[in-house]
Amino acid sequence: MGTSYRDNPSCHHVPNLITGSTDGFGLCVAQKLIQKGHTVYLHARSAQRAQAAENACPGAAGTFMPDSALPMQVFVNVLAPHILTCLMHKPKRLIYISSKLHKQGQPANMEDLFWARRGEDQWNDFASYCDTKLQVNLLANAVAKRWKGLASVTTVHPGWVATKLGGQEAPDRLEDGVETYVKHAEGDYGQGLTAAYFEPRGKLGEQLAAAGDEGLQERVVALLEEKTGLKIPA
């Protein structure tokens, strides 16, 4: 997830908060934006990881989020973006990091968003990843509907590349995903688009049809609001 704020309408460079920024795509994007003169805030799950990320990216400011009792993949991919969306000042641009694997997510699993019913015995990393990325698209599309005309809200699939998550057999280029991140952070895309989904190199993609279901969008928002006690600002 990334956000861009415009403090001064006449200034090209804007502050950016980048989550998932301790390595991989997020760290590369932070380094690129700092080179371009932007103010960048990094995010990590512990103070130690935040410091390591800051050391790897001089000129950025580090923040951290404590561990949660919820499944970490669900917390990082869905709950944390919801919390940040609710607590931040409305940005000019809001970019949620999705995946093409959202198309393998199961809408039927929405009611067990936090795995309370299935439990640890039925936990499956891949199935959870696909589900959480579909849930991110649903969240993003719900926010886009609420903030239409006030902020540009998009989802991005950065590509399957050789990061710790992607593994060494991944076929895509890191540079293509980073290019998409940077273009969105700087507003170099059609910002009149609402709830748009982008693929590497800024290519406009097609979401799973279920991601456009307003009933599912509102259900995931309701579950997140119930869990956190936070509501998306009007």
TrEMBL record:
InterPro entries according to UniProt: NAD(P)-bd_dom_sf
Entry keyword annotation includes Mitochondrion: no
Keyword field: Oxidoreductase
Keyword Ribonucleoprotein among record annotations: no
Superkingdom of origin: Eukaryota
Family the entry assigns: Belongs to the short-chain dehydrogenases/reductases (SDR) family.
Protein name per the record: NAD(P)-binding protein
Organism: Aspergillus pseudoustus
